[in-house]
């Protein structure tokens, strides 16, 4: 079973929040915005941890010694796919935890490369974003040139 990467709407649904609508002349990354993103990130973290626990329980319960090699191979392939998904999520958990630290250090929401505001919409779409759209685009172009 494959697990789709959550979209911004599903992340907001997981966190039980609606998209943030800033008031006119509202300061960027004020306490309300920080709390909004903290809630999203913690809910996302909790969901991944629940999935990991579910996988662990399922794999322990589903271990069956099939007599048919094809059935055994199918089960092993399912376990392999599940473990690959969990490994990707383990890496994502680290990013979420690093992002929560940035929130606590008042360093969240600003581009690591140029220092400008990343923007609320981009952060809602990708709460762990570290680069603004322009810097991310440049980084992807550089990556394409180096790799292809």
Reconstruct the topology from this structure.
Elements lengths: L7 H8 L15 H31 L7 H36 L15 H6 L7 H15 L1
Helix pairs in contact: 1-2, 2-3
Unreliably modeled segments: none
- The sequence of SSEs as H and E is HHHHH
Distance between the termini: 31 Å
Which class best fits the helix and strand makeup? mainly alpha
Overview of the structural elements:
- This protein has 148 residues and is an all-alpha fold.
- It has helices spanning 8-15, 31-61, 69-104, 120-125, 133-147.
- Helix 1 (8-15) packs across helix 2 (31-61) and helix 2 (31-61) runs antiparallel to helix 3 (69-104).
Give keywords.
148 residues; mainly alpha; 5 helices
Give a nutshell description of this structure.
The protein is an all-alpha fold and 148 residues long. It has helices at 8-15, 31-61, 69-104, 120-125, 133-147.
């Amino acid at each position: 079973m494959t697990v789709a990467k959550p979209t911004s709407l599903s992340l907001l649904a997981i966190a039980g929040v609606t998209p943030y609508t800033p008031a006119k002349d509202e300061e960027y990354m004020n306490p309300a915005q920080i709390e909004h993103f903290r809630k999203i990130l913690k809910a996302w973290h909790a969901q991944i941890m629940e999935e990991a626990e579910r996988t662990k329980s399922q794999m322990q319960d589903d271990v069956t010694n099939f007599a048919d090699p094809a059935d055994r191979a199918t089960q092993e392939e399912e376990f392999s796919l599940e473990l690959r998904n969990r490994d990707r999520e383990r890496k994502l958990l680290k990013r979420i935890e690093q992002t929560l630290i940035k929130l606590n250090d008042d360093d969240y929401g600003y581009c690591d490369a140029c220092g400008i505001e990343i923007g609320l919409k981009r952060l809602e779409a990708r709460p762990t974003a570290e680069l603004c759209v322009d810097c991310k685009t440049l980084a992807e172009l550089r990556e394409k040139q180096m790799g292809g």
